[in-house]
Amino acid sequence: MISSERISRRVRQLGRDISEVYANIDTPLVIVAILKGATVFAADLLRSLSIPAELEFVRAASYGGGTNSSGRVKIAHMVEGALEGRHVLLVEDIVDSGRTIDTILKRFRRMKPASLRVAALLDRPARREITVQIDFTGFVIPDRFVIGYGLDYAGLYRELPGIYALS
Ligand code: IMP
Ligand code: MG
To answer: Is there a contact between 56 and 33 (Cβ–Cβ < 8 Å)?
Structure first.
């Protein structure tokens, strides 16, 4: 669906856009990668930034082993340290129903960050159940389950350098 070359071009552009938006903040940007799928994207995005950034992780689980959301989102690991007064960018692999990002946003807002935005490599609007604002989007994709570049099916295929529709 999306070649590794297209992904790296897009990620570099997102890095430039994000660096511009946060050019004048006075503390390092806090990148929060959502485990596990967003780690590959976050690692490339981090290296496309021209501003200081810290890296944190949050773990949310909603999918189990299949290709349909169970509808429940659990936060299984939280960032270390306080986010109060910090500029926080959540980094997600794909926004599908919107439940994961919505749950994490609600939890993070309570921590009083100076700003809170979302960067998602993929946006699949066809299955959206909750309206969420995505501030930086890599690609809008059709209604197909995808794997590769960090995205898995039952824990597999994360190592693929491009993004593929699962057949
Ligand atoms: P949402 O909560 O329904 O928006 O689902 C988002 C989460 O489900 C993402 O963090 C992914 O881990 C997972 N997910 C959704 N769609 C796909 C897909 O097509 N491939 C792999 N993982 C997916
Ligand atoms: Mg995920």
So the answer is: yes
